[in-house]
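FORM 7B: Structural annotation worksheet

SECTION A. Query
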Amino acid sequence: MNLIKTGLLNSIAVGVRLLTSVGLNKILAIYVGPSGYAVIGQLNNFITMLVNAAGGAVNTGVIKYTAEYCDDEKRQIAIWKTAGTIATIVSISLGFIIAVSYQPLANLILKGQTHAEVFIFLGAGLLFFTLNALLLAILNGKKEIKRYVLVNIIGSVVGLLATGALSVLFGLFGALIALAINQSIVFCVTLALCWRRPWFKLSSIFGHIDPESLRSLGKYALLTVVSTACLPISQILIRNHITRNFGWQAAGHWEALIRISSLYLMVVTTPLSIYYLPRLSEIRNSSELKREISRGYCLILPVAVMCAFSIYALKNWIILILFTDEFAPMRDLFAWQLMGDVMKIGSWLISYLMLGRAMVKLFIFTEVLFSVSWVMLVILFTGFYGVQGAQFAYCTNSIIYWAKKAFLCLKRINNI
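SECTION B. Predicted structure
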């Protein structure tokens, strides 16, 4: 399946997610407000780090090696068993720690114990989060895109129904509970869709840890831990900085803009993750790799630019439809955020090249460096320009990030 077909098929899932997100954003805007958005963002970042620490970090490697060993079922199963066993052991251990430490975690992440019980739900469901992510990684690596897309569609609907209902009934606490349990519900659906596949057996997911597979996955675990930790940690630090200096309302506006970016960037980023990582893992020579990257830029960057212009032109309508009048001040933040998004898309294609070719040291270096620089630029620019300085910092950092990654990768491509 090529990039265009993958993108078209994925557009169905993206369309459903956009529609459900429109409804969900409106519900959250009414029932939790800007300050509630900021709290939801804090928990969401924590969950991202937690799931990857619990075993999700190896899933990038699962995608790569499932695709790479497409003709070697024995090697595939060794990878799956190793990943599944590690995920189960670590998830149960971490889940227990999260559940019993719910009060200190609430103080650390949510800045108070008002909604501390959320972490008990999160600890209880952590295993299902990680197993769902593992099954999705296998579907991706096996290129069973139709099932992968179907799971994402169902996940969007579950997210809307669960979060919407709990938010209406219990306000912010309900929204946080939904965030902690959504993927556990989706796991049941993913398991049902995988159950009848010829490759699926429980004995292929759990069992002996293969030392060679562990070493292979270890490289990707390190890559993924760094990449998935850097972004949420950076966002938490930035959100805390904005909250301290400008209040929870301003942090909520910033979080709402991040959500808008993530919604429309799904059109671009999901085909990248579904198609490019397995594809770049398969390629064996530099000329073919260059052609694939050039084709990606020709298809993806115009779409990103078009989406950014459309979002900017319709920003007033978007705020009106997705949010409430309380979010009106965020309209002044759109321009630099959208410019930064386009630059970030350009750099992401290079990032998938690094992941696909296992450029471990180079990837870790760039991710850590530019996560630190993002936070520092936000602190610097907000001192001069107020809240809008956070978007200036994001755009500036994204431009430098893309240029640096492209320069560093160019030499490596020629050596393949």
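SECTION C. Observations
The first helix runs from residue 3 to 31. The radius of gyration is 21 Å.

SECTION D. Sign-off
Analyst initials: ____
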